[in-house]
């Protein structure tokens, strides 16, 4: 009997180590590697990306990305604190950069490291559109969607055990790890998010943009423009963020909820 109890305590503690609670949904999700280990790797990759790409500074567009980014991160902080998750973002080091690149793309690495490509600006069309994309990308990072992209086979390959990941020096393993955690920043390296993660990021993103003072309905217009852009060559962002018509219907339906949530934080006007 005693042995059985010990065993269940042991099993429970393994599960605890390997799981984390998604503060937006309350769901338990897989977290094999703690932020304290992932974030330094992500920060290093991000810095590397910035040295290898043309960062735009001092322009109205670059300032807009930073300005909207600060509002979205402040919204995330307020939301998490109000919902009992103060300290969730302690290890985050927010950064918002615009790079000169025609790709229609934007992403947020673990720890709040954001990049917008100049190619996405004609589609975002302004602050509220940027806030819609930013809210969505930040939502993926906050919900740790990256780490959940790793398949069981990949976990085995890189030697993942509960609470830890044993990375060998094999660059292939490092690459699987980076892809899974959303660390690989090069174009085409990122794995696509699943539909359910897309839906979750849309919903969280709408709340964040509304608390930041932007009208969440702009999110629906944004994805509509995104799906119409590019003709035969769809925007890069759609290769990592699969989209469909249901998304626009959902966002339209959820927009009033997001506004209601924002009103709890004293936000009464929403910029379009
Ligand atoms: Zn997405």
Number of strand elements: 8
The proportion of strand residues reads 5-15%
Spans with pLDDT under 50 lasting ≥5 residues? 10-17
Domain unit count:
1
Task: Report the radius of gyration as a whole number of Å.
Answer: 19 Å
- Bound compounds: zinc ion
Q: What pattern of helices and strands is seen along the backbone?
A: HEEHEHEEEHHHEEHHHHH
Give the overall pLDDT as a whole number.
86
Main sheet record: 4 strands, mixed
Cα end-to-end separation: 63 Å
Q: Per the principal axes of the C-alpha atoms, what is the gross shape? A: globular
Which structural category fits the helices and strands?
alpha+beta
What order do the strands of the largest sheet run in, or round the barrel if closed? 3-4-6-5
Fold blueprint:
Elements: H1 2-18, E1 19-21, E2 28-30, H2 35-52, E3 55-56, H3 60-82, E4 95-99, E5 106-109, E6 113-117, H4 121-124, H5 127-142, H6 152-157, E7 160-161, E8 164-165, H7 171-181, H8 195-211, H9 217-228, H10 237-240, H11 245-263
Parallel strand pairs: 4-6
Antiparallel strand pairs: 1-2, 3-4, 5-6, 7-8
Bound molecules: zinc ion.
Domain Peptidase M48: 92-254
InterPro entries: Mito/Outer_Membr_Metalloprot, Peptidase_M48
Keywords: Hydrolase, Metal-binding, Metalloprotease, Protease, Signal, Zinc
